[in-house]
Amino acid sequence: MTAWLFNLDADQELAHGAGYTTPRRVAAKLRPHAAALAATLPPGDHWLDDGPADGRPGVAWCPTPSALARLRAAGALVPAAPPFAVLQRVNGRAFAHALGALPGERPPGSPEPTAGRWIAHREHTFAGRGHRFMDAPFGAADRAWLAKAPAFLAPRLDLTLEVALHGLLHADGSVQRGVVTVQHVDGTQWRRSTRAPDALEPPEARALHDAFDEVAAALGAAGYFGPFGIDAFRHAAGFHPLSEINARYTMAWPTGMGAWTP
Predict the structure, then answer these.
(1) What angle do CA 10, 259, 93 make, to 5 degrees?
(2) pLDDT-derived band of residue 24, with 50, 70 and 90 as boundaries?
(3) How far is 184 from 198, CA to CA, in rounded Å?
(4) Whole-number Å distance between alpha carbons of 134 and 139
(5) Where does the pLDDT of residue 188 fall: very low under 50, low under 70, confident under 90, or very high at 90 and above?
(6) 165 pairs with which residues across the strands?
(7) For 112, how many CA atoms within 13 A lie in the half-sphere containing its CB?
(8) Which residues face 167 on adjacent strands?
(9) Buried b (16+ CB within 10 A) or exposed e, 15-47
């Protein structure tokens, strides 16, 4: 009997820092997505938007300070959570870049490319926010976007398959592992996921699971515990086993893990 809080804009809070509150327009836009997730909860579990938690154990999409405060205010039993600074670090692009940079990826401060098709990623992104497609040489609007906050630049590749693998990292270092899911994506927007344990060729599957193990170890070393997922993709030149780390729940979590797991 768990009380769930789907703070789907958690990455905005990670980017903004302490004191973030969800703008009303953002809350209104995200509510249908949260409601869709709530509809997949097991019988007996409770979506916090439906009313007080009444002493149930609380779980947040990502246990940011504002999420923990909302759980506490709703009467939920607030769970142990990693420090906010840890959440910021392990969900940032720099953390994933250090473990497995995208092909040709350039960190902030690198010389501007003179040619090619590029995608820029800010440190914290979600639901298509914090990304920008650009063609070099960059125009004034592109440079203005880049000047607002640091961003990583990676060549735009023609992807033929996008997959994810989810896990639950316990505080004692043990890990529950899910199954491979295929991500159905429109541009940078996730649409749905399907379980596909046989989607990858054996060498690709080994590379993905090796990356998963490396990420789990790195998350634990950084002081993180909780749900996480890694994304990977196949493109014309091969398979890249780590494109993104989400150290939180994801839209594909119940598909990849088989159920919501507090």
Answers:
(1) 30
(2) very high
(3) 16
(4) 9
(5) low
(6) 230
(7) 12
(8) 177, 228
(9) beeeebebeeeeeeebeeebeebbeebeeebbb
